[in-house]
């Protein structure tokens, strides 16, 4: 559970997740922060964009790298509402993200503390510091509500 | 080793890899095929695009999904010159690619037969048929030449 107030980047990531839900996409949101400033944000949008890679983390990382004109987001933080999957964990490593904060764990699809455990592999040349659980209750509630409405 | 002639999609992926090398990017190329027709291709370009996700596979998958206006590339094949990393293996799974052909194995960064072994995880809900080794000698030669010139 989370103590109030939530750090502002996670509050913003949760707002992105809520916006994804309202657009009919699985509600996940992400924000890239550098030196305390939000550089870019993203929300899950594979259906609307016809893009299977359009997870919140990928969109936020691509937007941040484009904005900074640098393929490496060294020193940047990524705040995301759900444990990243293998694709997104790989992108986080390639982008040299320094710190990863995620809200809810994802036993069914996560690849940080579950399954592929991408950052723990010998093939992983860069891994972020990982801080799970911030905003977990809120992120899980948004996901639960989304899937309940669809049942 | 590979018997001649190479299947046309792998020949085209190798040409994409060579073009990447000439642009100063790590030489990897990829092609998406549907019903025997090339739908999209891509070459590694993270530096030029300032995009850490701009691996050949990701670019080919995104272009194919955009062209087909469908986030799912069901029934499609992906031909790539190097064993996909965790990010790209995850994208291949999300895209529902039916068959994956790759040329050279990548013990240092691969996540199909090495490391994260993304398709073997319980969290992986879709995995392609995997055919490694087609064009391996040619793909490895292009990579070796690229890194030799940079030493």
TrEMBL record, chains A, B:
GO molecular function: tRNA-specific adenosine-34 deaminase activity; zinc ion binding
Keywords assigned: Hydrolase, Metal-binding, tRNA processing, Zinc
InterPro entries linked to this entry: APOBEC/CMP_deaminase_Zn-bd (IPR016192), CMP_dCMP_dom (IPR002125), Cytidine_deaminase-like (IPR016193), MafB19-deam (IPR058535), tRNA_aden_deaminase (IPR028883)
Cofactor binding note of this UniProt entry: Binds 1 zinc ion per subunit.
Cofactor section: Zn(2+)
Pfam hit, one: MafB19-deam
Any single GO BP term: tRNA wobble adenosine to inosine editing
Binding positions for Zn(2+) per the UniProt entry: 55, 85, 88
Annotated PROSITE patterns: CYT_DCMP_DEAMINASES_1 (PS00903), CYT_DCMP_DEAMINASES_2 (PS51747)
Catalytic activity annotation: adenosine(34) in tRNA + H2O + H(+) = inosine(34) in tRNA + NH4(+)
Chain ranges of the CMP/dCMP-type deaminase domain: 4-113
CDD domains membership: nucleoside_deaminase
Keyword tRNA processing in annotation: yes
Function of the molecule: Catalyzes the deamination of adenosine to inosine at the wobble position 34 of tRNA(Arg2).
Family designation: Belongs to the cytidine and deoxycytidylate deaminase family. ADAT2 subfamily.
Name by which UniProt lists this protein: tRNA-specific adenosine deaminase
UniProt organism field: Novosphingobium marinum
Gene: tadA
């Amino acid at each position: 559970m989370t103590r109030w107030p939530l750090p502002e980047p996670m509050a913003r990531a949760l707002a992105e997740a809520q916006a994804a839900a309202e657009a009919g996409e699985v509600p996940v949101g992400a924000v890239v922060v550098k030196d305390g400033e939000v550089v870019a944000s993203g929300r899950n949008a594979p259906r609307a964009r016809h893009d299977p890679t359009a997870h919140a983390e990928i969109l936020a990382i691509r937007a941040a790298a484009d904005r900074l004109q640098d393929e490496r987001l060294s020193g940047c933080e990524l705040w995301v509402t759900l444990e990243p999957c293998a694709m997104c964990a790989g992108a986080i490593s390639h982008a040299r993200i320094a710190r990863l904060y995620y809200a809810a764990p994802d036993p069914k699809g996560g690849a940080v503390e579950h399954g592929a455990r991408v950052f723990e592999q010998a093939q992983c040349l860069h891994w972020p510091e990982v801080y799970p659980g911030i905003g977990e209750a809120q992120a899980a509630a948004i996901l639960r509500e989304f899937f309940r409405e669809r049942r």
